[in-house]
Amino acid sequence: MTTEQAAPDVTTNAQETQLWVERTGVRRYTGRNSRGAEVLIGSVGDEAAFSPGELLKIALAGCSGLASDSALRHRLGDDVDVTINVSGMSDDDEDRYPAFLEELVVDLSALDATARERLLTVVHRAIENHCTVGRTLEAGATVQLTVTGER
């Protein structure tokens, strides 16, 4: 499939974005969505590409950021600078990530101690309740793969 071709015919909810990856070279894929976004996927160390594990970590950090954004903007302003660092060491014996570490970096110096604690509580609650990626990782999810010979 080329970039000019339509997205694969995937049964989805009417509001759900279609997602797919296409092989573009040896151990190289491009992830796409039906809104036109692309991400390059490759092995660890490939220039200008994310590994699947890196994408998982970025998805977690991005989800936490989106879930907490409203609370942070409300209390610190629309231009608040936020960085979320994320890491996860792989367990090579099981070929998985047993744990992830996130660090939300934001300047809270303009808040007094009470306001700071309130904001931290709201941020944690927002992420715990609304970060789909984090909730999925914590609960676990099943994966079903079907291999077909037709597109």
Structural class: alpha+beta
Computed over alpha carbons, the radius of gyration is: 19 Å
Number of self-contained structural domains: 2
State the oligomer.
single chain
Flag low-confidence runs: 1-12
Helix content: 25-40%
Description:
The chain is α+β, with helices and mostly antiparallel strands and 151 residues long. The chain has two domains: 1-50, no CATH class; 52-139, GMP Synthetase, Chain A, domain 3. The chain has helices at 52-76, 113-130, 132-139, and strands spanning 19-25, 28-33, 38-41, 83-87, 101-105. The strands form two sheets. The protein has a three-stranded antiparallel sheet with strand order 1-2-3, with no helix packed on it. The protein has a two-stranded antiparallel ribbon with strand order 4-5. A hairpin with a 4-residue loop joins strand 2 and strand 3 (38-41).
Describe the protein's topology:
Layout: E1 19-25, E2 28-33, E3 38-41, H1 52-76, E4 83-87, E5 101-105, H2 113-130, H3 132-139
Helix pairs in contact: 1-2
Keyphrases for this structure?
single chain, disordered N terminus, GMP Synthetase, Chain A, domain 3, 151 residues, 3 helices, alpha+beta
Short description:
The chain is an alpha+beta fold. It contains three helices and five strands; from the N terminus they run βββαββαα. It folds into two domains: 50 residues, no CATH class; 88 residues, K homology (KH) domain (GMP Synthetase, Chain A, domain 3, 2-Layer Sandwich), CATH 3.30.300.
